Structures are given as structure tokens and as C-alpha cells.
Amino acid sequence: MLTWAAISLVIAIVAALLGFGGIASAAAGIAKIIFFVFLVIFVITLVAGLMRRPGTRL
User: Fold this and answer.
1) Alpha helices for the chain (secondary structure H)
2) Measured between alpha carbons, how far is 34 from 1 in angstroms, rounded to an integer?
3) What pTM, to 2 d.p., does this model score?
4) Which of 6, 34, 45, 51 has the most CB atoms less than 10 A away?
5) CB neighbours of 28 closer than 8 A, spacing ≥ 6?
6) What is the pLDDT of residue 11?
7) Which residues, at least 6 apart from 41, have a Cβ–Cβ distance to it below 8 Å?
8) Nearest C-alpha neighbor of 12 from the set 49, 20, 46
């Protein structure tokens, strides 16, 4: 998921350099949304991993 955000960011930068403002802003917005979704999922899994009991490893 973080890879998708990075790809969208690269697309936004390339589009901005070529003068496609609308496409650049849309791709940057998509990259921001994907990054924040990744961040929320990361924090949830981090908290869930810390709350596991030490004796219940799989």
C-alpha cells in the first residue's frame, strides 16, 4: 500500500513538471489518502501486536 502511495506521488510530480495541473493535483490527493490509510492500518496492527499476550505466539 505504501508502494501505491509512492507511485501516485511520482505520477503527480511528473504531471506537474509537464504542466498537467489537474492530473497532478488529483494524483497528489490520491497519494495522500492512500498514505493516511496505510498509516492508520499500521498503527492498528502495531497496537494489536503490543496487546497480545507473550505466551500466544503462532
Assistant:
1) 2-18, 21-51
2) 7
3) 0.67
4) 34
5) 8, 9, 12
6) 86
7) 1
8) 20
**What tens digit of pLDDT does each residue of 17-53 get?**
888 888 888 888 888 898 899 999 999 999 988 888 7
Neighbours of 45 (CB within 10 A): 10
The closest alpha carbon to 6, from 31, 33, 29, belongs to 31
- Burial pattern 13-42, b for ≥16 Cβ within 10 A else e, equals eebeeeeeeeebeebbebbeebbeeeeeee
Q: Are 2 and 35 in contact (CB under 8 A)?
A: yes
Per-domain residue ranges of the chain: 2-51
* Amino acid, single-letter form, for residue 27: A
